[in-house]
Amino acid sequence: MRRSFLTGVAATAAAGVIATTAPETRGDTKATANKSFNLNMVTTWPKNFPGLGTSAERFAGRVDKITDGSVKIKVYAAGELVPAMGAFDAVQRGLADMYHGCEYYWQGKSKAFNFFATVPFGLTANEMSAWIRWGGGQELWDELSAQFSIKPFMIANSGVQMGGWFKEPINTLEDFKGLKIRMPGLGGEVLNRLGAASVTLPGSEIFQALQSGAIDGTEWVGPWNDLALGFFKVAKNYYCPGFHEPGTVMSLGINLDTWHSLAPSQQAAIESAATAEVEITLAEFNAKNAVSYEEILAMPDITVRSLPDDVSVAIAQTAREVLAEIAQEDDLTRRVHDSFVEFRERSIKYNQVSEYGYARTRMLESLRDT
Q1: What angle do CA 303, 305, 308 make, to 5 degrees?
Q2: Is the preceding omega at residue 241 within 30 degrees of 0, hence cis?
Q3: Does residue 72 contact residue 38 with C-beta atoms inside 8 Å?
Q4: Are 25 and 97 in contact (CB under 8 A)?
Q5: Model pLDDT for residues 144-166, shown as the tens digit of each residue
Q6: Which sign, positive or negative, has the C-alpha torsion 196, 318, 158, 112?
Q7: Using an 8 Å Cβ cutoff, are 197 and 181 in contact?
Q8: How confident is the model at residue 370 (pLDDT cuts 50, 70, 90)?
Q9: Neighbour count for residue 1 (Cβ, 10 Å)
Q10: How far apart are CA 273 and CA 59, in angstroms?
């Protein structure tokens, strides 16, 4: 019998959903190709939120089409079935079949989860895909998530995220001291080491916290999503780029009982749809962030800034210390850390003559024409 961790209205809603889906999603693990499933997905995003919430809906639609309707997925926004930060527990305990979220939200379960979302001064979007698909990352991720009865996949990537919106400029390391900043994951831990106080808030709560003064600054995603939440109305200093999330993976986590009950063709359809979403969302973020960034540049009361080089170097040194420390948590976290860092160092060398090298050359040509 499943254990419920919900109370009140949320428990009633969850029970209603489970009652209608459980007969089809649970039971016989020897699923046949023509068996139909009505699955439910909980997310960590506001309803219809651009890029992230819409990605979950698009994924569900793609799975429906690929499977000829044999796998239907009902998407619940944060708070509709469970709170945003309750998505992982809901899937682990069988109260939902899958989640669409970000693995650093679960770092309280294991610090190793951070590496499958993003870490400060970590991998870019392309590098994350390369590590997870071809560098041993998926196998380590499977091993970690299996401890919680979950099968994980990449499902989206936002690309390089921005440093965030601050009410006051950051000119020195001292300026971080005493600030309350919304920044989840290991980026938040780095800020804590610098004297700030990091907090984790779901997207739906950030604007009010920034407006009321409960926090002094926030990162979210990038220009497109940042404009959607209206941070520019209450904070006038926009820092670019961010050190904390260079290529953030959004994840699909599926309850293992649900996963094993699916036919191989249905499993392949879900994996294929998730793989497609990674490319689609990254392209969408890159295209729409560029347009939204121009809008921000045109705002007369907004100052776009970058952290001073000496501040960035000090942050990078602190980030390296944080990563080395969490690697000591347990054997699996150490293996994840070592695999990630080894891949990162190799990728940095190659990028000097590929992506970064080309970008630098293109910038020189661009500057010549101005």
Answers
A1: 150
A2: yes
A3: yes
A4: yes
A5: 999 999 999 999 999 999 999 99
A6: negative
A7: yes
A8: low
A9: 4
A10: 6
Cα–Cα separations (whole angstroms), residue 147 to 49, 138, 324? 31, 14, 23
User: How far apart are the C-alpha atoms of 18 and 43, rounded to whole Å?
Assistant: 16
Q: At what angle do helices 309-326 and 331-351 cross, to 10 degrees?
A: 140
Cα separation, 296 vs 164, whole angstroms: 13
- State the Cα–Cα distance between residues 138 and 328, nearest whole angstrom: 21
Tokens 């907004």 locate to 302
**Whether pTM exceeds 0.90:** no
Q: Assign domain 8-155+247-287 to its CATH architecture.
A: 3-Layer(aba) Sandwich (3.40)
To 10 degrees, the CA torsion angle through 244, 212, 285, 121?
Answer: 0
pLDDT tens readout for residues 84-122: 999 999 999 999 999 999 999 999 999 999 999 999 999
Q: Which pair of tokens denotes residue 130?
A: 């390369």
- Reported as a pLDDT band with limits 50, 70 and 90, residue 33 is low
Q: At what angle do helices 125-134 and 331-351 cross, to 10 degrees?
A: 130
Tokens at 137, concatenated: 């990352």
Task: Tell me which residue of 166, 254, 156 sits closest to 210, measured CA to CA.
Answer: 166
Q: What angle do CA 193, 195, 197 make, to 5 degrees?
A: 90
Q: Are the CB atoms for 235 and 217 separated by under 8 Å?
A: yes
Residue labelled with tokens 């300026």: 175
Contact 182, 245 (CB under 8 A): no
Domain ranges of the chain: 8-155+247-287, 164-245+302-326+337-368
**DSSP secondary structure letter of residue 3:** P
Amino acid at 263: A
CA distance 125 to 367: 26
- Distant-in-sequence, close-in-space partners of 188: CB < 8 Å, separation ≥ 6: 181, 198, 199, 200, 244
Q: Which residues contact 364 (CB under 8 A, 6 or more apart)?
A: none
Sequence-ordered list of residues with C-beta below 8 angstroms from that of 53, at least 6 positions apart, any chain: 43, 45, 46, 47, 77
**What is the CATH number assigned to the segment(s) 164-245+302-326+337-368?**
3.40.190.10
